[in-house]
Amino acid sequence: MSATGPRPTLFVRRRLRFLGLTPDDAIRAFFGGNAVVAVVVLALITYFLVREGAGFFGQNRRNLEVYRLAGLEFVDHLRAQEEAHTALTRRLSELRLKAFARLSAGTDGAEAAERALAVFDAYAERFGAAIDPLRALGSELAEVATGIKTKFMVNEDRKEERRQLIAEGKAGEAARVGVVPVDFAAEARPLLAARERHREVNRVLATELLALQAAPPAPPVPELRDLLERFGAEVRSYVAELPAIERRLETWDQAKPVAAGEALRAFLFGRQWLTASFWQDWYGLLPLLTGSLLVAGVALTLAVPLGVGAAIYVNQFASVREQRVVKPAIEFISAFPSVVLGFFGIAVLGEVLRQVSQLPWLAWVPGFPFSERLNVLTAGCLLALIAVPTIFTLAEDALNNVPRALPEASLALGASRLQTTLRIVFPAALSGIISAVLLGLGRVIGETMVVLLCAGNRIAIPDFTQGLGVMVEPVHTMTGIIAQEMGEVVRGSIHYRALFMVGLVLFLLSLAINFLAQRILRRYRLAPS
To answer: 287-526 has which fold?
Structure first.
């Protein structure tokens, strides 16, 4: 063994000497090469995302142009007015349900409650019917606008068919494909002519609503008096907005160009993600970003105390035997596939949390009881489980890097182990712990399967007026929308490119979080001890 052992080493050294390298140079080149590979991969990912998503804003701008030229934007002002009235009608229905629950709880039962609510029901029915003339006008104009859009889309399909035939060398067949340009100004004249009808409908609507607001029904139960007064104020506010809607219709300019910044704002601050709609497709990032941040917030709220607390206990208080058990157990959590955790959330955790929320003595908790078992809370709990190993491992490393002289000096001066941990060790390791938390955030913000299976997948901005009750609402996330819809889109379409733009935003967000964590960690490691 001794005769043959040095030969490979001698051979390597000779080869390195032949290449003009020392062993240190070779090691440095190897690890430097790894760094170069990482940079190249990062650049390729960025290039790929930008290349595939670059055409989105041009397509979205064209999408908004058609929305305006076809008159859909005009009709949406009427639809928004109708939806605001529908929201008031729902408010009346909620008041009715509260009154019915209060009355039926008495000794007379449900039949007596229905009789007591007869006047209120007549009022609610009259209030709901007041919008019928506007609804009829909106439906009529919607048919006109969708007809214009359909003509345009058919025309675009024929243009594409003609281009394909020409590319195939079939010029004769291409000439037979009729392409008739759409005169948007002429097609939209019925919409503009309806402005006077809309003003008349609004006058009738305002008169009816103010009359109803001036003579509301007596509160079915005294507890609803304040709610009915608040409802009356909302009705007056609704009526006061009608002239503003009329002015928007009067000043609506069909030929107004769509600026490039408008397409960007529609993506970054849009409140709707709506695809394959017969009316209008919208690609707004805000509901997806909000859902991702809510789920990540719940996950960190649970994971930070558990991960950091476990790291402090294991590092400062646990015996050697406890360390041998606790550390592998926590780190083993990361071995669970995320899809398995997602199935666990669907089958077990979501239902358990829903059942717990039904307990009467927990009715004081915001949002309890709730009926949706797949929501922010369910997904956040599972993501916390995923984040705990990352936070625990990095936080424990930060605690290990605290110079031993600091806690030893504290203990020598008579401080207890707890006082030394809280006042000496923890502050000294704080920057490393913050870095661990940020890396944990980067871990959960990029998780896909758990949020896709357990977050509820409702594409809407949650109702933040409910306070902490927003945590039990279903949401959708950026990672979830990409995983759900990417397999169904046509390559090169606006929907396809919109998903890549979501991926680019997610990539930049994760990159920023990890960069910040590394900066904090590097500052901690380079700090003089």
So the answer is: MetI-like fold (1.10.3720)
